[in-house]
Amino acid sequence: MIIALRAHATETDIQTISDMVCSLRYQPRIIRGVEQTIIACIGDELSNRSLEVLRTLPAVETVFPVQRKFKLVSREYHPKDTAVTVNGVQIGGGEIAIIAGPCAIESYEQFRAAVGDMIDNGIRIIRAMPFKPRTSPYDFQGLKIDGAKIMRDIKKEFDIAYVSEVPGAAQIEILNDITDIFQVGARNAQNYDLLEHVAKAGKPVILKRGMAMTIEEWLTAAEYLVVNGCPDVMLCERGLRSFDKTTRNLLDLGAVAVAKQLTHLPVLVDPSHAAGTRSLVPPLSRAALAVGADGLLVEAHPDPVNAYSDASQQLTSSKFNEFLDDIKPWLELARLNKSRINETIDG
Ligand code: PEP
Ligand code: MN
Questions:
Q1: Strand, coil or helix: what is 4?
Q2: Cα-Cα end-to-end distance for the chain
Q3: How far apart are CA 28 and CA 11, in angstroms?
Q4: 182 in helix, strand or coil?
Q5: Considering the entire predicted model, what is its pTM?
Q6: Shortest-distance ligand to the CA of residue 132
Q7: How far is the CA of 153 from the centre of ligand 2 (A)?
Q8: What is the pLDDT of residues 177-193, one digit of tens each?
């Protein structure tokens, strides 16, 4: 941490602050400028108490933390990409995964049709959402336990893995033996108690970025998962709250590029919740692949117009091949680019 003192700070102030710094287990180094004195404090900011409490002293102008709030998820700590493999599908580490399925499970027939269409298109990891955390309590909340039963029945028939959102700790137990990946949604991305519980369940986790979350907060939330015993964390950018209603959310592709630099974890993009409109899903997917995303999380429904939730953004599952054809050149280019980057890291 760096402490910048006010111009009027006296020698006694400098001594008192240095003593406080020592008592907080940092080593102070005093740098005297013409007008101002700076105290550089050496010590691990993650394990020591923060020196930001000293900001309230009259002789202190400001205190700057130097270290980031995350460590285990950082590229400095682990330079090579982490790959998460689920049901034979590798996510990250040079591979690009497409995960798809309906917004919500609505009935046995609807979910089975969607899964069948996904299988026909080579998709092996399916969005399976019996619980739907919705902004309004009057909107469809999912089939809940009945939806989980449908998931279980359909899994007997197909070789598939599921991604399922857990809106609260209570749903972890219900879904634990059915789902392969837990999703923590945008509205829960800073629910630290939930993150701790999900991490301890021992499955891979997709962590959506909250709609008003900084990149540092997003990676620090991922750190919660890793610190609590979950190494297989995947981040997912799904768009931020913005002033422009033309798209449902503002897809922050810059954050995807930044996250790829700062962390070794796979970074996915959800073009569906970002776009809010079917026709925008292919272009946003192409852009996501161009910027380095390790995978896409796409909504597809057998009859999207009559979907109980997110009707306007879901692709028609029986036409999913058209979407895959559309993004194919970008997918190939993105894979080529990733193998080039990995060769450079491997030296
Ligand atoms: C979802 O993926 O079903 C979902 C609700 O997404 P988000 O949390 O990004 O809104
Ligand atoms: Mn949805």
A1: strand
A2: 34
A3: 14
A4: strand
A5: 0.94
A6: 1
A7: 22
A8: 999 999 999 999 999 99
